[in-house]
Amino acid sequence: MLWLTYAPVTTEAAHHYGVSIGAIGWLSQIFPMLYVLLALPMGRIIDRWLPQGLAAGAALTAIGAIIRLGGASFAVVLIGQVLIAIAQPLILNAVTRLPASYLRPESRATGIAVASAGTFAGMVCALLLGALIGGRQIYTLLVVQAALGVAAAIWLTAALRIRREHAPVDAERVALRRVLGDPLIRILTGMVLAGFGVFVAMTTWLQPLLAPAGITETQAGLLLLTMVLAGVIGAAVLPTAIVRAHGERAFLCIAVAAAALCCLLLAVVPTLPTAFLAVIIVGAALLTALPVILEIAERRAGPAGGSATALLWMAGNFGGLLVAVIVQLLVHQPAVSFVVMSACLVAALPLLRPLRDYLPRPRQ
Question: What positions does the domain Major facilitator superfamily (MFS) profile occupy (predicted)?
Answer without folding.
Answer: 1-360
